[in-house]
Design brief:
The complex is a heterodimer of chains A (243) and B (60).
Chain A (H helix, E strand, L loop, with lengths): L5 H22 L13 H28 L2 H33 L8 H14 L1 H7 L3 H28 L18 H43 L18
Helix pairs in contact in A: 1-7, 2-3, 2-6, 2-7, 3-4, 3-6, 3-7, 4-6, 5-6
Chain B lengths: L13 H46 L1
The chains are: A mainly alpha (243), B mainly alpha (60).
């Protein structure tokens, strides 16, 4: 049952995210360098962190799937990657808007942080076509899990590589030598990050509840209609054992 | 007559900030719309299944 505590999750997300954005707008001071424009940070960076963590979560679920062979772990991994892709699209669009406002360009190709995120995003964009290309459900689930683990391992490696890069114009949020964020900015930032993480968890639960309900309806239809049920269409989405 | 007005003008580049937050809102709304479509499909399917179960019960 994925629908349990959904209301509590939704309310917590609403309160935390609204509170976080309110803190960002009214409590956090304006940046001395970028001014009001820097307020995009409270949306863009939490989105990026949560999207990347979601990809890693997808990899952890995929490991569990390969270990246990249970289809629910494949579904969890699929939904985690699906949600992270949506968040990733948000990161790219909000990042482009910030780049345009800050640097005068929608995209800067020699900036490691931007390009590496795009590579990760495009890598995961092939996940669903990969699933769809494999008709056999077991094979599809296994190959998708291997992909999720490999790509998931690439995420922290990629993050490290970018941190070690010598030249970048992209700002470091938690720089240690140059001071980093001002304390009030940090409070607002952490509130936004928590809100964004809760939003991800809530949407993940919504999606899991939806997929679970769909599987139960299919199983019920099969029990009631017997052979009259048409064969399931080819799909990239995993099927639960109960369906 | 003296008119007192609060300074409500937004700073420069505020449009970009608003645009970024709007993108986030639009993404959320699209997701809610997709979930609403799924929910109405579930409702339709459950109605069909209820009718099917009623038919089986009367036939038995």
């Amino acid at each position: 049952m994925y629908g349990t505590r959904l209301r509590a999750f939704s309310l917590a997300t609403l309160v935390t995210l609204t509170g976080g954005f309110a803190l960002a707008a009214f409590y956090a001071p304006e940046d001395a360098d970028q001014g009001f424009m820097q307020k995009i940070l409270y949306l863009h960076v939490p989105l990026a962190i949560v999207a990347l963590c979601g990809f890693v979560f997808g990899a952890v679920c995929a490991i569990q799937h390969l270990r246990t062979g249970e289809s629910r772990w494949d579904l969890r991994s699929y939904v985690a990657i699906h949600m992270s892709l949506i968040f990733g699209a948000g990161v790219l669009v909000t990042g482009s808007i910030w780049a345009r406002a800050s640097w005068g360009h929608w995209w800067v190709w020699d900036e490691p942080t931007l390009v590496s995120f795009l590579i990760v995003f495009l890598l995961y964009a092939t996940y669903q076509p990969l699933r769809f290309s494999i008709e056999d459900r077991d094979k599809q689930a296994r190959y998708a899990s291997v992909f999720a683990i490999t790509a998931g391992a690439f995420v922290p490696l990629n993050f490290l590589a970018v941190r070690l890069a010598q030249s970048y114009t992209h700002p470091r949020v938690f720089a240690t030598t140059d001071g980093g964020l001002e304390p009030r900015m940090k409070v607002a930032f952490y509130a936004c990050l928590l809100g964004m993480a809760l939003l991800y968890a809530t949407l993940w639960k919504y999606e899991m509840a939806s997929k679970n309900t769909s599987a139960q309806i299919k199983a019920l239809r099969r029990r009631l209609a017997g052979d009259e049920v048409p064969a399931p269409r080819r799909s990239a989405a995993p099927t639960l054992e109960s369906a | 007559m003296t008119i007192l007005a609060a300074d409500v003008t937004l700073p420069d580049n505020a449009g970009y900030v608003v645009a970024a937050y709007l993108v986030f809102l639009v993404l959320l709304l699209i997701y809610v719309a997709i979930m609403a479509t799924k929910l109405s499909r579930f409702e339709r399917e459950l109605t069909e299944l209820n009718e099917l179960a009623d038919k089986e019960r009367t036939a038995a």
